[in-house]
UniProtKB/TrEMBL annotation, chain A:
It comes from Senna tora. Its main location: nucleus. It comes from the Eukaryota. The keyword Transferase applies. This is HemK methyltransferase family member 2.
Automatic annotation (TrEMBL), chain B:
The lineage of its organism: Eukaryota, Viridiplantae, Streptophyta, Embryophyta, Tracheophyta. Keywords: Methyltransferase, Transferase. The keyword Transcription does not apply. It comes from the Eukaryota. One of its GO terms (biological process) is rRNA (guanine-N7)-methylation. Interacts with TRM9. The keyword Transmembrane does not apply. Belongs to the TRM112 family. This is Multifunctional methyltransferase subunit TRM112-like protein A-like. One of its GO terms (molecular function) is protein heterodimerization activity.
Amino acid sequence: MLLNVDQSNPELESISSLQITTKVNNNKMASKKIRTAQIRLMSSHQEVYEPCDDSFALVDALLADCSNLLKHCPALCMEIGCGSGYVITSLALMLGQEGLGVNYIATDINPHAVSVTRETLNAHGVDAELIITDIASGLEKRLAGLVDVIVVNPPYVPTPEDEVGADGITASWAGGENGRCVIDRILPVADHLLSEKGWLYMVTLTANNPSEICLQMREKGYASRIVIQRSTEEESLHIIKFWRDSDIEVFKNEKVMTEKSVPARLMDYVLTQFPLFSFWRSSDSDNKLIQRNPVHTDLDAKDLLRIQFHPVSHSLQSVRYENFDLWGTLGIMSFCYKCS
Amino acid sequence: MRLLTHNMLSSNIKGVTNGFPLRIEAEKVVEKTVEMNPDFLKKMFDKIQWKAFVDGSRAMGFTELPEEVDSSVLESDEFLSRFHHALLELHLEEGALVCPETGRRFPVNKGIPNMLLHEDEV
Ligand SMILES: C[S@@+](CC[C@H](N)C(=O)[O-])C[C@H]1O[C@@H](n2cnc3c(N)ncnc32)[C@H](O)[C@@H]1O
């Protein structure tokens, strides 16, 4: 059973000094202090986005997921829109370099940003391949399916369309309608470049409608979760992680029953079968959840309930429930129950 | 820019069908020593388009790669160290990448290729 309820982690502030024990290189257990880029070593330029709350939130999300990333053993990592280089430098410090078999590529449409990233990397003694290009233009053909980790802090601020991709620093925040203009171009490219085991980490703003982004990625076979959610005075940020989920692929090919077509009797049966449903029903501690999400009576359009039956015996095989409507309070809530 | 990256780059001009490999014009090449990781090299060996790689390394002044290879070469330490050197230690610092179909030059300055297109190329 899988239940993802991620909330921003109050302990994160202390994570940068976290000690993690990892298997390094020749299987020796080593205790390693995790480092990220340091502001005093950052280069800057008036036309380049300086590390901000969104940059810090993304790096904190990578830190929060650091032990998974180390186990993931990525060979190629990539950042789209590297700006000052704060994120790609932090990632390189966290995961190591060539000797550990990790290589990095970063792109930006702003030539000044790429130069600043070069200086920031140098100042930290790490390296990445840098390319001035629009998203990943020029790489799509040969890099397809090879990238194990992609990180993106895109221009996400809702603006007039004509500011999108403008020269200099405007391109760092201008996101067009709902701030989705560049994001919607990045997602299919990321899907194309990611390897089978690939992960994408992306910053989004509430105005970008992150739940819809997740549903859209779901159609492409990706599961998602919020790694960090953070509200600042001006904005509420979500750092979302996407990965290919074989369950989703499977479900795509199965007969899928959604919400209202589920007969009440069947739902009752399902409810008696699964402890989690009863947890949900009886959880008085979160009335909001119960009100917004009365599982067995009227699932609303944002709930997806997928029930899978055995093709021959018609016995119940699995139930998957996802709700994309609880953003802002709980993150995506989803679980999958496979009957053995 | 490393030859690893060169091997992953194609001309992105609209309408170009054979945009790979970009021809390297080298004005300045630098070498930076990095630690070798045989597993990474073995993983990349399958992904590299060998002819483009050999031609690229020649253009950068390194001529010690075999023209023809099959996976048995991976057994040889000598091969691995040459492969490592050409793939990760040679950097095109100044020069250009030339589209094989149109001849358009993408400049490389301070090791950074600029693949941005003019308005009439997108
Ligand atoms: C919000 S800033 C993030 C910068 C840096 N990654 C950070 O987190 O601090 C977005 C960056 O994306 C770049 N960008 C905008 N549109 C782009 C595009 N179409 N292709 C590549 N980069 C782009 C901008 O130039 C800017 O550096």
